[in-house]
Amino acid sequence: MIRRLAPTAAILFLVVAVPFVASGQSTNGSAKLTYKVLPTVKAQVVPNYASGYGPQGGLGSGATPTPGPNAVANGGTVDFGNVVAGYQYLYKYAAQVNVQTNDSAGFVVYAEGATDLNGSNPVPSPATYPILSTLFWLTSSSSNTAFSPATSFNKTGGTALGVNGSNGIDYSGSGGTPPAASTVWNSATGGNISQGFDYQLRLSGSIPISQFNVYIVYTVIGN
Amino acid sequence: MRRTNLLAFVALGVLAALTVVSQADALQAQKALKFYSFAFTVTPSPSPVGFAKPAAPANPVVPTQVAQLVADPFVGPAQVASADALSWDVAPGATMIAQSSVQPTPVPVQFVTKSDPNAAFLQIFPQAVPPAFPYGTTVIPCAFKVFTFYTNTYKLVDWGQGTVSSGGTMTFPVENYPTASYLSWAVPDFSTTTHTYSNSGAPGETTWAGNAHQSQTHCIDLTLNVPASQPAGAYQATIQYTLYVTLP
After folding, report:
1. In the prediction, which pLDDT does A1 show?
2. Rounded to the nearest 5 degrees, what angle is found at the Cα of B204, between the Cα atoms of A65 and B124?
3. How many angstroms away from the CA of A173 is the closest CA of chain B?
4. Whole-complex ipTM
5. pLDDT digits (tens, 9 = 90+) for A165-208
6. CA gyration radius for chain A?
7. What would the DSSP string read from start to end of B123-181?
8. Three-state SS for B104?
9. pLDDT computed for residue B27 by the predictor
10. Whose CA is closest to A5, among B93, B96, B92?
11. How far is residue B193's CA from residue A36's CA, in Å, rounded to a whole number?
12. Which residues pair with B239 in a beta bridge?
């Protein structure tokens, strides 16, 4: 999307030689110049960003969840480990989004699944399971539980780049930007700020027995 | 001898009482529990549409002033150059600049599903439901299905997850007793009567009962009532279903 940039106003006093051609005289004046600067946006996403990260919940399943082997502090995978079909889980401190921008109007952060949930080991039939209504996000809070209100991730309408979207999502063929429904954070200010997110897993009783993987792609756009 | 008989009689009575109590305890047991979560958005009602006459410009351009400026652009005192309300993008020359955006490294998510040991007794199958609801009452036919089975008689009970008998803080739509729930349920296989969800914790209300070896799967119709006082936004209801079985 093309848009106008946020204006930065400045008064620039100049000594101007006004070309009075007829009289050959010169005089001083002032010029007011309003200009815009090119905003910059940088962002990083850190999985497992705080101590205590990992899954909890599964009430009624008879099993206590523990982080999977690919979950490592300040990186790695949001690995729920073993979970029981038909139950709900919360993954604490799943991902933290850090944004640095000089855009005083702020920014919007979007997040989508690059694909649906990809099943493997064993490969189910069909090989994917809908991410919608299965994997959810909510802003991190110590009071969050597996039953806290949360918003479902969507499968993107863009093109997944790399294997299963490991390199992100190309939105050029789908309007250029992620859909508004995938907004996870809308900041009205710029600067260097962060927001943490927990993930929720709500497993239907009909989900196949398999290992599932998906990439969550965050896109940050200046206002 | 008589004293011994009396003691034996009392002991027999205590034993009989204990047996009855322990049998009563053994009569029913919680076999399995599951949760149904229902996330939705309340959308604002359509606003009335009207037209307002645009206000007149604050400083209308007088044609004669324009004509004078065209005839002599340098008339008057020393000129002042000003961008005023205008502004230019960088680089100048009417070049438009795309929004700044960035995609950090994607976050990999993984989990391994294991079979549910309770699946033979209790399962919940969510069905497709609308993501958004208007104000007023909306019926969601077969919002989800519930399967129950046991080798002995059983009953399925429900209540709003997180609700308690007093002092609860659960909010819309399930609320907490004594505020009535704005979410109701019905099992059309049995009756069209709707019941507001129990919202005072255990023991809840009986959804249905079953005979030994009776396998049942029924649709649950939901009725959501959104009062006009409820702000638009995202909400969630979670219902706990518990299967109590009679032990042999």
Report:
1. 35
2. 50
3. 16
4. 0.86
5. 999 999 999 889 999 999 999 999 999 999 999 999 999 888 99
6. 24
7. EEEE----SEE-SEEEEEEEEEEEEE--SS-EEEEEEETT--SSS----TTT--TTSPP
8. coil
9. 79
10. B96
11. 64
12. B36, B160
> Rounded to the nearest 5°, which phi and psi values hold at B126?
-65, 145
Residue A12 structure tokens? 């620039």
Residue where the block lists tokens 């921008």: A101
Instruction: Report the residue count for chain A.
Output: 223
Contact A218 B117 (CB under 8 A): no
Distance CA A153, CA B180 (A): 31
Distance, in Å, from the CA atom of A165 to the CA atom of A152, rounded to the nearest integer, reads 18
Say which residue the tokens 């008589």 belong to: B2
pTM: predicted TM-score of the whole model, two decimal places: 0.77
Contacts of B35 in chain A (CB under 8 A): 59-60, 87-88, 147
Q: Least CA distance to B162: which residue of chain A?
A: A147
Residues 6+ apart with CB under 8 A from A137: A94, A111, A150, A151, A153, A184, A197, A198, A199, A200
Chosen from A133, A152, A187, A201 to mutate, greatest number of chain B CBs within 10 A: A133
Residue B184's beta-bridge partner residues?
Answer: B196, B223
Which residues lie closer than 8 Å to A116 by C-beta, 6 or more apart? A128, A129, A130, A131, A155, A214
> What stretch of H or E contains B186?
strand B183-186
- pLDDT tens digits, residue range B154-196? 999 999 999 999 999 999 999 999 999 999 999 999 999 999 9
| Distance between B53 CA and the closest CA of chain A, angstroms | 28
Determine which of A62-76, A163-177, B76-90, B121-135 has the lowest per-residue pLDDT on average: B76-90
Element (H, E) at B5: helix B2-27
* Chain segment B117-164, per-residue pLDDT in tens: 999 999 999 898 998 999 999 999 999 999 999 999 999 999 999 999
Provide the mean pLDDT of chain B: 82
